[in-house]
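Sorry to interrupt, but I need a hand with the structure work. Could you write out one complete protein record for me, on any chain you like? Could you add the entry underneath, on a fresh line?
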Amino acid sequence: MKTKSIARGSSNTGCNRASAVVLAISVLGIPAVCAQDTQMQRGYVQRHKPAQQPSTACGDFNYSSLSIGPLDYRITPPDVRELVERRHFTQNVEQLKQGVTSTVGGDISYTLRAFPNHPRALKAAAELARRNGGRMPAGMQFSIQCWFDRAIAFRPDDFQVRVLWAFELLKSKQRAVALEQTKVAESLAKDDPMMHYNVGLLYFELGDHEKAMTNAKIAYDGGFNLPGLRDKLSKAGQWKE
């Protein structure tokens, strides 16, 4: 599928328009803030220490004092999430229709620098790269492999990131690496039915029906109701009551 040219959108951000252009569309793609943003940020100056730095080719987490992040999306207060999302990860950006402050790729990059483990932004970045034939989309600072490298380096214990990356690896037929990520996800699932459901889906796609069944049982016995995994196993003749 060919990538359609992405129109630049305008948005009333509450900041001076010229300042927004200078700050939000920086050459380095570093999340920056306008005067109103900094006022809110003063009440939330905490930054979440990365577990480790990403691979050399994928940048670092050493942001300037005016930048938002890096923040763990899972535990960031809603008002701080909104500070970024209302300007850079709107519905149009998530659906890859139109950017707000720059291109779709630029706004997704901004979001992922602020929240390296933002699950929906990671998913949107992967889909944008896929639509662009695997090439770096306009405005995107890093490759999709780098975005996931950064997310995992930042928070290795984020189950959702591991699952998303495993599914992306399967789509690109990197089955061995997908299996590695699936095993890590399984180790993080503990007793959570939803997590085991997703792990079960991964094992099914990897062709390991026994592992898929094991995780399906944990999910359904734990009260998870979506029938998709059970239906897949049943059609494959692998479901056992």
